[in-house]
Amino acid sequence: MKHLFLLITVLFFVSCESQKKATERMTESLVETYFEGWVSGVRGGGAGINFHVIFRTPLAAEIQLEKVVFKGKEAVFTSEDGLHYTAYIITKKGGGPVIEGEEEINEPLPESNKAVLYFKVKGKSEIYTVEDVKEKEMLAYPSMNKPR
User: Fold this and answer.
1) Burial class (CB in 10 A: 0-12, 13-18, 19+), 7
2) In terms of domain of life, where is this protein from (predicted)?
3) CA 71 to CA 49: how far, in whole Å?
4) Among 1, 40, 77, 112, which has the minimal tally of Cβ within 10 Å of its Cβ?
5) Distance of alpha carbon 89 from its chain centroid, rounded?
């Protein structure tokens, strides 16, 4: 019984250490986080924030970047190439009617540029806080030409 306890204790510390190393590798590989606001070019088209995370090397197989909480909003990440992850945060819905049970999302956003990244390492949830996310120039999408 004493040997079993010792084995479990050793495995626990080895597991914690490998998880810590995976988290450190992820944060060391982090090159840049930034956001850019956007507005639709058509009346009632909405507005939002594109939140970007860029890594130097692809994340290890045991790490999954899941979501971000930024300016009081939450969004999941998508990635096209394993180095650049984007979360699309809607801050103002388009001009259509509000569907029953949905809320209008037009309240002012917090001023803080602090973001919390949620990820999993070997299935265990972890968080990483970015204190000062940089803002890039707003994207103002052009309006569509009217059909003739």
Assistant:
1) exposed
2) Bacteria
3) 10
4) 1
5) 9
